[in-house]
Amino acid sequence: MKNDVMQVQIRGILPANSGCALFVGNEEKVFVIQVEPQMGAVIRMFLHDTPKERPLTHDLINRIFQGFGITVERVIITDLKSSTYFARLVLQQQNELHTERKIVELDARPSDCLAIAAAQKKPIFVTTRLFEQVEDMTEVLNKINETGTEAD
Known about the structure:
This protein is of the alpha+beta class. About 30% of the residues lie in helices and about 40% in strands. It has a seven-stranded mixed beta sheet with strand order 3-2-1-7-4-5-6.
């Protein structure tokens, strides 16, 4: 699957009419994933290492992973169907002797995957097929950045 994916980053976050626009991409192309406003705020907090008064849900998930010796390997945005993105969370667990490892892929919302990746500073990938399919929003992001509108 390594050749079927390419690495991307969260390039910007912008409040939008119906929620929050996450600009995801690389130097070649940027595309937008719409998420709820609260998820956009959570992802922004993780990207900027903003201190939080109390643990958020994704902090709890990360602590559970730590407790069971599970590490997040990567997230993969896999598909787009009927305006809905799909993603996979790839986890690894080693046994107590570190002689064997188990890899598990879970279906998850892209917003949750991106929040976990941002919290743990893990790589984000997109399938090549999906990347070729999405509309390039690089110019939109560049204009937003030029006008000084907040697009972290």
